[in-house]
Design brief:
The protein is an alpha+beta fold. The protein contains four helices and four strands. The strands form two sheets. It has a two-stranded antiparallel sheet.
Length: 118
Amino acid sequence: MLFLHANNDGYKLDAKHDTPIEQDDLPELIEAYHSKDELWPDWLAREPAKIWTEKWWFADAATLRTNDFNLSAGRYRPMNQAAIEHRNPRELLDELAAIETEIVEEVEALQLALAEAT
């Protein structure tokens, strides 16, 4: 099954949706749909570890079956497989506490400066 994703359809995303804009993914997606048989080998030959930048992708029957035939496109969209490093939450909290201490010290210094100025 071929999935397609459009960021822009050629019109401004506002309440009326009637103002044309330059960005329009639809012609490219129509071409992808008409060329799906030619795109299939490209999809099979892709390197899964590489970032997939195309606005089309495939899911085979086995993958669809595994997902109870749920056709939500995002479920099958290839994502960047690069590992994301998350900081240790304890380190983040320690950093926030240090910033908070610094802010309190600055506020106290400003209060003292104001008190001396009056």
